[in-house]
Structure formats: C-alpha cells, structure tokens
Automatic annotation (TrEMBL):
Source organism of this protein record: Metabacillus rhizolycopersici
Pfam family, one: APH
Protein name per the record: Phosphotransferase family protein
Residue ranges constituting the Aminoglycoside phosphotransferase domain according to the UniProt record: 21-218
PANTHER family the UniProt entry points to: CELL CYCLE REGULATOR CCRZ, PHOSPHOTRANSFERASE YTMP-RELATED
Listed InterPro entries: Aminoglycoside_PTrfase, CcrZ_PhaseVar_Mediator, Kinase-like_dom_sf
Source domain of life: Bacteria
C-alpha cells in the first residue's frame, strides 16, 4: 500500500478498503466499507463545497484537515455511469450547463479564490509565446494563429462566467435516478461561456441541432456566438496539439493538425 493510502486508512480506520481512483494528480481514492462507498481527494479546492451545495457535483460528506495541513474531502461515490458521446445532445446537459454558467455563487467563489477572468487577448499572447518557445512552425499553426488574431475584435464578450473548460463526455456522470453531475473542476476559469458551449457543440452535436440545444440552454444562435464558438474550438485544438508536441507524441500531434485543418476549412467556408 502506498504511503498516501496508509494515512487515508488512519483517517478512516483499517476497516475501510482504499484503492486509487486514477486521474492526473494521483491524489484521488475510493474507499469502501460495509456497503458505504466514498470518493476521497486530497487538497481539493474550497470551490468543491459550493459545487456540492449547488448540486453540480456529488454531495460533499465531510472535510478533514490533517496535522500536516492537507485537507481531505469525502463525497458519495456515484452509482451510475459516464455519459456517452450520443448522450451529450440531451436537454439535461444543456440545462446543467446553463445552471453552471448562470450561478452567481460559483462566480463569487472563484473570484474570492483569486481567479482572474480569461480574455481573448491574454489567451492569444500566451499561446503566441508558447508556440515561439516550443518551435512549432507547422503552416497550419501559423494560419490558425493569424486567423485567431484577425478575429480578436469579433470575439470580445462582456459576459464572464464560471467555465469548466473540459466538458468531455467522460466528465459527465448520471446516476441510476437520472441525476446529472459534471465533475473534475481543477481547470475551472472565469471566461466567455462560449469556451464550454463551443467545445461541447463542435465535438458532440451535429451543427443542424445546435439551435435546438442552445434553445434548451437559453441562447439564440447568432453570428457573434457562432464566431466565438469556432474561435474557442480552434484555440482548444491548438492547445491540444501543443500538449502532444511537448509529449513527443507525433501520432496524436498529426491527428490534431488534421483537426485544425478541418476547423480552418469550416471557418473559411462561413465567409465564402
């Protein structure tokens, strides 16, 4: 048993079975005992308590501070499943996304935690510096960056909300009672809601169904929103390409170059 699992056993008692839950941080665990199942995490953000209170993540059962300063949170472990790609067109997804983006409580908490709003200008500055530093000189990247810069005046948005920033179908969980949750909030930011909306629509929903999905969300599809959607989708594709470039994963890198070509073609097609 790892050291982390040892001290978790000390917190809960040795009658609990502790197993790693996976994830990027390696600090999440499942605990089971006599039919009880908990999801444990070390040093979760205080943001988790607000997400739980809002019913966006599974209920927070308890929080404990350790002598070394670490904070352990325990949530009910869901009996349910991750959403499949085809489920993302559901009205329940649109409604929960709307609830998240409209939540004043979530926004106030992120502000108290010191999060500064992301703006298109600051994003472009950061990615331009990163591309130069990483010697990414593929023509698709240059074309994508030029287009993103050109579109800057058209993607400004006064609406700043809490964005999850990773609305992959694997992060949506639905229980046996059809209660939907969105988990894994480590990358949450204050930004244009088109960050979440665009990624969700582009990768999961046929464009002919965008208007209907947005109607359930509470928005009308207009030219300004469409421009922002494609802007953030292209930005996300560039970010993914950079990730695999840094990892020296040439296969995935080429896949994302292909995605960038397709997104660029879509954007160009809108103006022809």
């Amino acid at each position: 048993m790892k050291l982390e699992e040892n001290w978790l056993e000390q917190v809960l008692g040795n009658e609990w079975k502790i197993t790693p839950a996976g994830g990027a941080t390696g600090e999440a665990y499942f605990a089971t005992c006599d039919g009880q199942e908990l999801f444990l995490k070390r040093n979760s953000s205080p943001f988790l308590a607000v997400l739980s209170a809002e019913g966006i993540v599974p209920k927070l059962v308890w929080t404990r501070r350790m002598e070394n300063g670490d904070v352990i949170t325990a949530q009910h472990r869901l009996i349910g499943r991750e959403l499949k790609s085809k489920d993302m067109n559901g009205q329940n997804v649109a409604e929960l996304m709307k609830k998240i983006h409209r939540s004043k409580e979530l926004l106030d908490m992120l502000k108290r935690l010191g999060k500064q709003p992301l703006t298109p200008n600051s994003i472009i500055e950061d990615i331009q510096q990163a591309v130069a530093l990483e010697n990414l000189d593929e023509p698709e990247i240059t074309e994508a960056l030029n287009l993103l810069v050109k579109q800057l005046p058209n993607v400004q948005c006064n609406e700043q909300v809490v964005c999850h920033c990773d609305v992959n179908h694997n992060n949506w969980l639905i229980t046996e009672n059809n209660q939907l949750y969105l988990i894994d909030w480590d990358g949450a930011m204050i930004a244009d809601p088109a960050i979440d909306i665009g990624i969700l629509l582009y990768w999961y929903i046929d464009e002919t169904d965008w208007k209907e999905w947005l109607k359930a969300y509470g928005l009308e599809l207009n030219e300004h929103l469409l421009t922002r959607i494609y802007w953030y989708v292209l930005l996300q594709a560039l970010t993914s390409l950079r990730l695999y470039h840094v990892k020296n994963n040439e296969k995935e890198k080429q896949i994302w170059i292909g995605h960038i070509r397709m997104i660029l073609a879509k954007i160009k097609g809108r103006y022809e």
